[in-house]
Automatic annotation (TrEMBL):
Protein name (record): FAD-dependent monooxygenase
Taxonomy of the source species: Bacteria, Pseudomonadati, Bacteroidota, Flavobacteriia, Flavobacteriales
Pfam families the UniProt entry points to: FAD_binding_3 (PF01494)
GO MF term list: monooxygenase activity
Signal peptide span: none
Protein's organism: Winogradskyella immobilis
Keyword Ribosomal protein on entry: no
Key word Cell division present: no
Residues in FAD-binding domain copies: 4-310
């Protein structure tokens, strides 16, 4: 029996992958109910290949919005790099999809038998003996299991017990995410992800469903600061005032209840994700800054490779095979993403940065994206 701890994107995708391959599992989630998180998520082709295998790709395409083109621009929206991803569509049969996180969660939840998801079960600690593992929860209950899959996110309690020296790193950046209604938006914003880079600031936009837009705004900041809900919209508008007018338009159209703030952290890459019968996956093992839009996608890839390793390998070898398959790709993404965030927030040399980005052959950028989009 596998016990998955955490019902985020990773835990739920892992549960569905276990369902598909007939692997025995139970999922424990600390929340009393799985409620909507008010943000969008980009699902790139590596994530969508897994969802295609799990037979939920059509639902995702139906609820989300295709992203056929990725454009990096200056703050006034003059392009630095533009990638119309027809080659990706040709290779995989689909583009990336942007979707409301709640819609994705819902699609996953509908396919997982309810009795296998145990809500209001906050993992507290584990104890290992000969062959079994005991799981203890904050409500005082305990269960016996064979294996623990730690999918409990970046602040993973399992990671803290398994690898007490592991560390998370603050990137020095904080991010607001918003969703707003936007009818009759011009064609140039349809089916497209645009990220604008200004001086120490970034702003990204993409459609996530019919007449709904998702945006994110990133600034350099100390961590753990709180917003004043009465003034945050005007503060954001002032901060991004020099950007293309659509930025303030979107902020203006967003209800304050649809704006969430997150400090951007990652997990300092670890040499090992497992020990004995306990294995970390998803953000618990390798949270990355979101600058490449790959954090969730990497957790989704984990679910696929872990489930297949369990199906094919001898039990003692599963976590080793899984880690070997995943760790190099993930570590590279963590590193590059952190670097991208730093370049995107340069205080000086903005013109030089633009000059260099334009000078790099677009074939090089495209090659990198194609490598990331390859499953595994
Ligand atoms: C600003 C921002 C934008 C992003 N944009 C993208 C994007 O566009 N594309 C992309 O692919 N990725 C993106 N990501 C990354 C993505 O959101 C994460 O990689 C992904 O959500 C991680 O999923 P997870 O299931 O591993 O962790 P989580 O989503 O954190 O889920 C962990 C789950 O475990 C539960 N849990 C925690 N502790 C316990 C406990 N003790 N007991 C039981 N349950 C517990 C939690 O309640 C939660 O449900 C973004 C991240 C951020 C911060």
């Amino acid at each position: 029996m596998y016990s998955i701890i955490g019902g985020g994107i990773c835990g739920l995708t892992t549960a569905l992958a276990f369902e598909k391959l007939g692997i025995e599992y139970k999922l424990y989630e600390k929340a009393e109910e799985l409620i909507p998180v008010g943000a969008g998520i980009l699902l790139p082709p590596n994530a969508l290949q897994v969802y295609d295998w799990l037979e939920i790709l059509e639902d995702i395409k139906q609820k989300g919005s295709e992203m056929r083109r990725i454009t990096l621009t200056k703050s006034d929206m003059s392009p630095l790099f533009d990638y119309i991803q027809d080659d990706i569509k040709e290779k995989y049969g689909f583009y990336s999809v942007s979707i409301h996180r709640w819609e994705l969660q819902n699609i996953l939840l509908q396919k997982i038998p309810k009795h296998k998801i145990h809500l209001n079960k906050s993992f507290a600690s584990y104890k290992t003996s000969e062959k079994k593992v005991e799981l203890f929860f904050h409500d005082g209950s305990k269960v016996e299991t064979d294996y623990i899959i730690g999918a409990d996110g970046i602040h993973s309690r399992i990671r803290k017990q398994l690898f007490p020296k592991s560390k998370i790193r603050y990137s020095g950046q904080t991010c607001w995410r918003g969703i707003c209604d936007y009818k009759n938006i011009s064609n140039e914003y349809q089916y497209r992800g645009i990220e604008m880079w200004g001086k120490e600031l970034r702003f990204g936009i993409t459609k996530i469903e019919k007449d709904k837009f998702y945006w994110f705004a990133v600034i350099k900041s100390k961590s753990n600061l709180k917003d004043n809900l009465l003034t945050i919209k005007s503060e954001l508008s002032d901060t991004f005032n020099d950007f293309h007018p659509i930025v303030n338009h979107l902020i203006d159209k967003t209800s304050i209840t649809n704006i969430i703030r997150s400090d951007l952290y990652d997990v300092n890459p670890m040499p090992n994700w497992y020990r004995g019968n306990i294995c970390l996956i998803g953000d618990a093992a390798h949270a990355t800054t979101p600058n490449m839009g790959q954090g969730g996608a990497q957790t989704i890839e984990d679910a696929y490779f872990l489930a297949n390793a369990i199906k094919r390998e001898q039990p003692d070898n599963v976590f080793n095979v899984f880690q070997k398959k995943r760790i190099n790709k993930v570590n590279q993404i963590v590193k590059q993403s952190l670097m991208m965030g730093k370049i995107g927030h340069l205080k000086y040399f903005e013109s030089l940065r633009s000059f260099i980005i334009k000078a790099i052959p677009s074939s090089l950028f495209k090659l990198r994206w194609r490598t990331v989009y390859k499953l595994g």
